[in-house]
Amino acid sequence: MAPPLLLLQDIALTFGGEPLLEAADLSVSAEERLCLVGRNGSGKSTLLKIAAGLIEPDSGTRFLQPGVNLRYLPQEPDLSGYGTARAYVEAGLGPIGDRHRATALLNELGLSGDDNPARLSGGEARRAALARVLAPKPDILLLDEPTNHLDLPAIEWLEAELEAARSALVIVSHDRRFLQNLSRNTVWLDRGRTRFLAHGFSQFEAWRDSMVESEERAQHKLDRKIAAEEHWLRYGVTARRKRNQKRLEGLAAMRDTRRQRGAFTGLRLEASEADISGKLVIEAKDLAKSFGERVIVKNFSTRILRGDRLALIGANGAGKTTLVNLLTGTLAPDRGSIRHGANLVLATLDQGRASLDPETVLQNALTGGSDFVEINGERKHVIGYMKDFLFGPEQARTPVGRLSGGERGRLTLARALARPSNLLVLDEPTNDLDLETLDLLQEMLADYKGTLLIVSHDRDFLDRVTTSVLVAEGGGRWIEYAGGYSDMVAQRGAKVNAAPVFSAPAATKDKPKAAAVQAQRAKPRLTFKDRHVLDNLPVRIEELRVLKARFQSLLDDTGFYARDPAKFAEVSAAFVKAEAALDQAEREWLRLAILREESAG
After folding, report:
1. pLDDT in tens, 162-186
2. Are 497 and 153 in contact (CB under 8 A)?
3. DSSP 3-state helix, strand, coil percentages of the chain (rounded to 5)?
């Protein structure tokens, strides 16, 4: 086996008296594809900085093979001191770098190169930083949250670029799909130590869960042993003798072990829900909105019903946030009408965390100055609510500006979820959140009884949460697709960074008219019967969902079978039948919805 290009061994580092890294290892071989995962605050970014040579550990060794070209992408790139984006990128090339490649990468990422760094948005600064680390074609690329603030076309471009590169990769990211597509090995940083999995991220979560279950079994045994030792400590007649000091030390060590293992849990997400809204939430008819000559929305109509989970996706600048503002009534359209249903209560999580004043302390940012928050009718002290989002009591007076990106993300979630709502607008909710927080957010949204409007670039999140997606097709045209992101790609025939594929192949040069006619004849058509079925299926689907829920509630009664086995069997059969009918109705609606889009293309 070839020696590693980069090797970290037994890395230890303490911040503020608390150990962040205790025995962390990292080995990177030529062309290796490695993802580094762990909770927010576990030290992933710090370990990357040590690997890049930017931070000296308290102990441990770092070895980089002589002559190895290493580049590091920080989570928050600093472009200050450079006159243009091109100057910033070229400064990272080194003595033998190719300036033409630097310019080409900037152009592919949508930057001219003459851009003023001080005026770049977060996404544009990230693109310039990517061009800077990719341009030299390094032997090792250390990437800290490379997809943050990028839109879907840029993420898919970056995936393709990294897949084709010969660089070894070490990636820290919250984007599951990105990690699944690029990683071959996984390093889990947990409570200061690293664990290695010789598989990509796609197998990590099952492996991690098995490790946690194993630890929980060991902790259960430890708890029993601690209980026995505490009983001895209280009642043992020899507890104070000198020869038993070792046993007391052992008890202290076991308690310390239990405290460390307990650090894995703690995060709780719960949305404060308002009274149920009307069945119709939003109805838009013939909307149009432009800014100067730039058309954002044109001839757009939709109906959003209670319980829908609608996502808006597209390139940065396509108008996703503008369309959300139109639908929620915070922005007036140039033409068309918006009708909101009865009893609508809106809560918003904004993309830029703009509502967070950096000078406001954490407690006041959550409550506005009160000592309590109210969640679903239950008053809760702010310190307890902070603990639900992994904030310690000592952080109550910490200014928001001193929080990390992940902490600000959790704070924004906490603020949004504390407000009663039945319509929740989430603008880039996954930014800066770790994978465990994302899991809990997805579970909470699955239980949320209201309606969701989501703007996100996280493909895995969209697949797990949404029931339909609206895609910006350009020129103010928006098309809705049933399902999540992957369903959209299957129906559209292309990803977001490409034009949709609806019709037959283009006509040949020899017979353009004949081919065009043939393509028109081949285009699928929605019959009158199909239209009738499509119009009535939503009602049928809702009826089946209610029926299935009623059967489910009966079966949830643990004493049902003991009271009436025959009735239990009858209800079970009816539940299976209703579930199958619902599945068939949803599949038929999806088929006809796709057919309608294709016939309209």
Report:
1. 999 999 999 999 999 999 999 999 9
2. yes
3. 45, 20, 35
